[in-house]
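Table 4 source record.
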Amino acid sequence: MNGASSYSGLVDRAFIFILGTSILLLIAVTAVMIFFIVRYRRSKNPNPAQIEGSTTLETIWTVLPTILVLVMFYYGWAGFKVMRDIPDGAMQVTVKAQMWSWLFEYENGKQSAELIVPTGRPVALNLTSSDVIHSFFVPAFRLKEDCMPGRTNHAWFESIRDGEYDLLCAEYCGDLHSAMLSKVVSVPADSFDAWLGLDAGPPTGRQLLTLRGCVACHTLDGKDLVGPSFKGVFGKTETVVLPDGTERQVTIDEEYLRRAILEPKAEIVKGYKDQMPEQRDLVTDEEVDALIKFIKGLQ
């Protein structure tokens, strides 16, 4: 095992202890079972005798498992307590999960589709979801916590070495659950401070497609995914389905794109499912304008 967070060793020790104990018990029980099968087989004991209970034996198999369970509880509780006690002064990052992408927002307002963190500095996560239950899971950090709509969960970690670590969703959340992937990128503290303080200006339309999770459902190369591709969509005539089930023809213009972003349930392109969450509270007017401008150019 090769954990990459400050408390991964605690988790590993608890896992190894429980696994080792289980293996030893399996071997012991199997050995005793085989011994009894051989020793008391029918050919050697045609007339079985009644065996009375043993207070000593019953005491042993009651006390020993109780001690084992208490030791397992201690190891589990020791690791759990550390994982739940967020250190004072930890850097705050808001994690926003949605089908099927991650967005990370820092205290200064900077946003990223990957979680960039400083090595050796504790990071506190405020986890939310804009649609369904997701689960923030970084195997290398031994960290997993649910992101739930309507509430904020909390977790923390401290990366102990530089590197890139897989981040995935561990709660089935729909068609593209398995593609809900990102990275935790741990860099030296001075490099992180320089990155965090870098003013790159407002995100471009292309950057917004990633930050807002649009590319999880819409491609840029003409291939359909969960939703229609953005390439060449501007100016096309499509059949859309209204909330009451009626259909009508629309031309994909700026007005339609704006409505489709802010109120996606109002007019769903025929042949696609109603899965896109409303973006009204997730994007600004300037971001909508940037998205529309970029989509218009994908001809």
